[in-house]
Structure formats: structure tokens, C-alpha cells
Design brief:
This protein is an alpha/beta fold and 343 residues long. 24% of the residues lie in helices and 20% in strands. 24% of the residues are buried. Essential component of the TIM23 complex, a complex that mediates the translocation of transit peptide-containing proteins across the mitochondrial inner membrane.
Length: 343
């Protein structure tokens, strides 16, 4: 039989019906047929809209309102998968889900849905976890006398990296972004305020030293600096109901840590971090963050990759990760062992 008149509109390769309750049909054939027809017409209209008229985040036409309670359209290509969810509250009758799919040579898809369990950005974007010092700025103490700092914070000179603001705009457009610094909360907040301004409100999280995994060791490069690690599992396995993401949203396949200290990623799965060389204020011609810069270009490709780990494994960038072949492996192994034995 023709279900809800769907064959008068599309003849998909398969139709799958899931019913969670028994009762009468929640939509008439004619109502559902008109609804699907209207939605297919909207999809056809999208094909003629120039790319610059599409919303940059979810590729919606600019005149289409973003609302998770409303139907949402996204159009990557002509090859697509479509999904329609119908529900009714009348007498708690039944919920039915009709899924139909078109597949042509590849994985490009269109999805039609009246309900989403998560914002569309969560379905599209990878998580980028940014360090501050050495990546977005050079923070120096004591302040140098030969060069005026962009800002002084807690007796430290802060030199903003060239193209920092433009780089941050790019990051927020292409990724979900968090900050994780091994500095104290007060200093992290002040540096983020200076570097990001109003963009800081787009951060998924802003973590400081208190979120790091501590050791009893001091960093090799600075005997006054505590040796700490940044364990991404703390992000992935979050259980705080007040967080804007949930456990399972992120994992090793869609998360990348950017830090100029490779040892801070030692407790993480391999190929979940890249380690750009540290920025120094004495290099005013640095363009890594700018359009066409090496880090910017790398992240452009990473944003489109299917899997973070596979991409990083086959496309190494910056400093090498610390492994058992590294010069100071024995030192870092002792530091890690103190954590495991303590637990």
C-alpha cells in the first residue's frame, strides 16, 4: 500500500516505519503528502540560491529562521538523505517516524526533520581546544624593556599574535571552540577578555589550571612551573548537566587540542593534538594564524576531514608528539607513573 500518499511524491529505495505506540494514524495521507511536497519544493529552490546567500553556520537561506522547534533544511549537494518526523499529542495516540532516503554515488545529504536532538552545529563541527600562551599570544615575565607590550596583566607582558582576531573568527566559524590554559582562573579570564573581546561568549568552555591533571614534577623548560597534563577525557566524559554539551558529543574522532607544549597531551589518545611551534613576540612577521598561514590552512583541511585521528596521523604538523623514542621519555614516564600510582 501507499503510505500517507508518499508514492505520489517520491519513490525512495526504502521506507522504514517505526511506531512507538498503538492507536489511530497521526496524520492523514493528504496532509502528509502536501507537507512533503511543500518541503521538496523548498529543497529545489535551495539548489538555485547562490552560495553567498546561504547562512554560514548551517547553510540555510538567510530568510529561513533557525529554530530547533521548526523544520530545518540543509543542502550540501544534490545527493541526499531526507528524514521526516511526525508527532501528535492528541490523546497520546502514537508517534510514527517515516524515514526515506535517496543515495547517489557519495555521502552528501539533505536532511529534513521537524525535531533535532541536538543543535545542527553539534552534528557538523569538530571541537577545537585552544591554548593561550604560545599559540594566541606571547606572555612574558618580567615585561621586556626593549618592546612595548599590547597589554600588561598581573605583571606579565601580553603580546597578541599577528592575525589573532581574524584567526579566532575563523575558528568560531568552522569549529566548536574551547580554551584550556594551565594558568590560574583569574589570569586566564583577563587574557581571554583581552584577546577575544565579545567573541569570548562563543566559547564552549574556558578552563584553567584547576582542570589540569597535576603532578609533583616541574616542567623541564621552567623549574618554577608545575608539570601538568590536559586530559581530553575530562571534556569527553563530562557529567555536569549545566554544560552546553553532553557526554558522548565529543570523542577522539572529532576533537583536537592545540598546544605548544607536547607533553601536556601525553595522557590522551594518539593523534588528538597538534603542537605548533611557540610564538615569540620577537617575530613580528609571523603569519601562521593569517589567511594562507600554515596553521590556518591546516585547520581548514582538518575541519573538512572525516576523522581527526586519521587526518593528524597522515598529516603531521608542528612539533612531534612525545613518545617512548623521545629524548626525555624516562622523565615524563616517571611523571605519569606518579599519577597512576596515586590513583
Amino acid at each position: 500500500d501507499t503510505l500517507f500518499g508518499i508514492e505520489s511524491i517520491l519513490q525512495p529505495p526504502f521506507v522504514n516505519i517505526t511506531r512507538t505506540k498503538t492507536g489511530t494514524e497521526i496524520a492523514t495521507r493528504s496532509d502528509f503528502g502536501v507537507e512533503i511536497k511543500n518541503r521538496m519544493e523548498k529543497l529545489n529552490q535551495l539548489k538555485t540560491i547562490p552560495a553567498n546567500e546561504l547562512h554560514e553556520d548551517v547553510r540555510l537561506p538567510k530568510m529561513v529562521q533557525k529554530n530547533n522547534n521548526m523544520s530545518t533544511l540543509s543542502l550540501p549537494d544534490e545527493k541526499y538523505t531526507a528524514e521526516k518526523v511526525i508527532s501528535s499529542e492528541a490523546d497520546e495516540t502514537q508517534d510514527a517516524t517515516l524515514t526515506f532516503s535517496y543515495r547517489e554515488d557519495n555521502l552528501s545529504r539533505i536532511s529534513l526533520s521537524s525535531q533535532f536532538s541536538a543543535p545542527i552545529s553539534r552534528l557538523r563541527k569538530k571541537l577545537l581546544v585552544l591554548d593561550l600562551n604560545g599559540l594566541l599570544a606571547d606572555i612574558v615575565s618580567p615585561p621586556p624593556k626593549d618592546c612595548k607590550a599590547d597589554k600588561k596583566i598581573a605583571r606579565h607582558a601580553v603580546f597578541k599574535r599577528p592575525f589573532c582576531h581574524d584567526f579566532l573568527r575563523f575558528c568560531f566559524e568552522r569549529f566548536d571552540v574551547g580554551v584550556w590554559s594551565s594558568r590560574t582562573q583569574k589570569n586566564v579570564e583577563r587574557v581571554v577578555d583581552f584577546l577575544m573581546g565579545d567573541m569570548k561568549h562563543k566559547l564552549l568552555f574556558c578552563w584553567d589550571l584547576s582542570y589540569c591533571t597535576a603532578t609533583s614534577f616541574k616542567a623541564l623548560e621552567n623549574k618554577y612551573k608545575a608539570l601538568v597534563f590536559k586530559e581530553l577525557r575530562k571534556v569527553w566524559e563530562i557529567s555536569d548537566p549545566n554544560c552546553p554539551w553532553a557526554k558522548g558529543d565529543y570523542n577522539e574522532s572529532n576533537t583536537v587540542l592545540l598546544d605548544d607544549s607536547p607533553y601536556k597531551a601525553l595522557l590522551n589518545p594518539p593523534y588528538t593534538a597538534i603542537f605548533p611551534c611557540s610564538y615569540k613576540y620577537q617575530n613580528p612577521s609571523d603569519n601562521s594564524l593569517g589567511a594562507g598561514g600554515d596553521l590556518r590552512v591546516y585547520l581548514e583541511m582538518l575541519a573538512e576531514a572525516e576523522n581527526v585521528q586519521r587526518f593528524i596521523q597522515h598529516n603531521p604538523f608542528g612539533q612531534s608528539a612525545i613518545t617512548n623514542r623521545s629524548e626525555y621519555w624516562a622523565f615524563y614516564l616517571r611523571a605519569m607513573n606518579t599519577i597512576y600510582f596515586a590513583n
